[in-house]
Amino acid sequence: MAWGGWGGGGGMFGGGVATGLPFGGIPSELMPEATKLLAKEPPHPPSAINFTQRPSAKERERLTLPKLLRVYPGYVTSGSLLVIVISLVMQVGPLLTEFAINNGMGGTREPLGGHRSLTIIAVCALLYLASAFVSVFLQRMQVDVTGRLSSRVMHDLRIRVFTHFQRLSLDFFTDEKTGVLMSRMTSDVENLQQLIQDGISSFALQGLTMVVITIVLFSLNVTLATWTILLIVPLLFVISIWFHRASERGYLLVRDRIANVLADLSESLYGIRVVTANNRQRRNIRNHRHVVGAYRDSNLYTGRVNSIYGPATIMIGILGQGLLLGIGGHMYLHHQLSLGALAAFFLYLNRFFSPIQLLVQQYTALQQGRSSIIRLRELVETPPTVDEVEDAATLPTIEGRITFEHVSFGYVPGQLVLHDINLEIAPGESVAFVGPTGAGKSTMAKLANRFYDPTEGRVLLDGVDIRTVTLHSLRSQLGVVPQEAFLFAGSIRTNLSFGRTQITNEEIEEAVDVVGLRDLVDRLPDGLDTVVHERGQTLAAGERQLLALARAFLARPRVLILDEATSSLDLRSETVIERALDRLLEGRSAILIAHRLTTAQRADRIVVIDQGGIVEMGTPSELLKAGGAYAAMYNAWLASGGRDVSGA
Fold first, then answer.
1. Per residue in 421-442, pLDDT tens?
2. How many structural domains is the chain composed of?
C-alpha cells in the first residue's frame, strides 16, 4: 500500500494532482494485469434501465458513504473481518519477542541471567516469520475485496449522478459550467473510489491497531500505559481537532477550484477555432494561468496544514517515547519490569505512533473524500425547476391544438421576457414567429415544449395544461429542430434514428430522400454508416442541419418546432429544405421561428413578436397588405437581397 508525502498537498493524499484530475485510463504496462482481473469477474446480466422523471424512494435518500456501502453487505462484512484479523495478526511479533528475550535469552533479573534456549529463540523466529506471511496474504485478500467494493459503489454512484443530470432542467445547464459538472463525475468520483479502495480500510486498520495496542500496553504494564495515555493522547486530540477544521475548509476549496480548472479547459478546447481565428492564445494562457494559480494556492494551503499536523504528531511521539524510556528504564532497574516486557512495550509503542502517522495521511484522504461527497450530495439534491407533479397523467395522442393563455415569463425573477401572451394554434396549422433578436420567439417555443414553465398563465395542448402530464408523454409527441444541430459521436444512421426506436432501413432511406441528404450520403465513404466525430464537426453546418431535419422527420412528432432551422443553409440547400418542409409539416401543428422570411412565408399564419408581446398576426398576404410591422420587415428583407416569395 503506497503512502503519499507531506509536502505541498501534491502527494496522493495531499490534495494535489493525483486525486484532483480526471482518470486518464489504464496505463499500457498495467493493461495485462487489468485484463486478468476483469477475466475473473463473474458475468453480469444486462441491467434493465427504467428512467422516470420523478426519482424513486431509494434515489431520494440522502447521499452518504454508509448508504452507498450498505448495498453490498457481503463485501463490507468480509472486508471488516479481514481488517480485524489483520490488526490482530500484526501484533503477534512483539509478544514473541518478549517471550524470546525472557525465556530464550535470559532477559530477566534472575541469578545467572535467567534461562537460555536457542530452540525457543528459533521457534519464536519461525512463528514471527509465519505471522508476517499470514499478514501479507490477508492484506492481499483485503485489497482485492475493497477493490471490488469500490468499483461497484462507484458504478452505482456514476449512474445515479448521470441519471440526475437527465432529470435536471435546461436552466441548470445554462447556469452551470460544463467543466464543473465534468469534475463532479471525474475527480470527485475518483476521490471517493480512492477513499473506499484504500482510505477507509487503512483508516480502520490503523485505528483498530491503536485500540489493540492500547489493550496490550495495559496488559504489559499499567503504569507505563497510563503515562502513555496521559502524555500523548490529549495533545494528539487537540491538534487533530484543529486539523479537522482547517483541512475540511481547504479540501472544499480544492474541489471547487479543480472544477474551475476543468471548466476553463473545457471552454477553451470547445472554442479553439474562435481562439485561433482571433489570435487570443496569449489571453487564454493568461486566464488559464490565473485559474490554475488559484488551484495551486488551495493546494498550498492544504499542504501547509499537513506540514504542521504531520511533523507535530511525529514530534509528540518522539518526546513521548523519550519520557517513557526514562520511566521504563527506572522501573527495570528497580525490578518492577522485565527486560523482555520493556522491549515489547517499546516495540508496541513504536507501533502505536506509526498508525498515528499513517492516520494523518489517511485522514487527509478521508477529508478529500468527504469534500467530494459533499459536492456530489449538493448536486443530486438540486431539484429540477421543471418537474412532474406527483399524479401526472399520461398525455393521450394529441391533435395538436396549442394554446398560450395569459402567459408571462422571465428567465430572471422580476425581468419578464414575455408579457400576457394569448395565442391559439389550430391542429395542423403552421405558425411562424418573427421579430427582432431577443423579442421572445425562442422563449415561446421553449414554453411549448416545457423546457421552462410560465411565470404566469398556462400552456395547453388539446386543452390540457402541460404541467399536469408526464414529460415523457409530452415530449414524445413534440419534435424540436434547434438552430444549432447537435450530432453525437457515431454513425449517421445512429444519429438519424436517435429520436425514435425500431426504425426500419426503408424509413431512413425515405427520410434521406425527402430532406435532400442523398448527395451527402452517396459521397461519404461508408454512406449511412459513416462515423461523424464529436458534435459532427467533420460536417458542414448546413449538412448537420439537414441531418437534424431528417431526424425530426423520422421521429414522427404530432407537433413540430423549428427554431431557426434554415439559418445555416445556403441558397441551394434552402430550396431543398423548403420542399422538404412541405412534407415535414404535412398534417402537423408547427411553430416556425424564422429570421429568413422565405420560411415564414410558407406558414399558414405569421405572428410578429416584439418587446415580449404580440404586435400583429395574420396570414402572410394579410400582413403584407396591412403595411404594418411585418410588411416593414419584409421590405427590409428584399432590400438586403432576400428572395421575394410573396407571389405578389
1. 999 999 999 999 998 888 888 8
2. 1
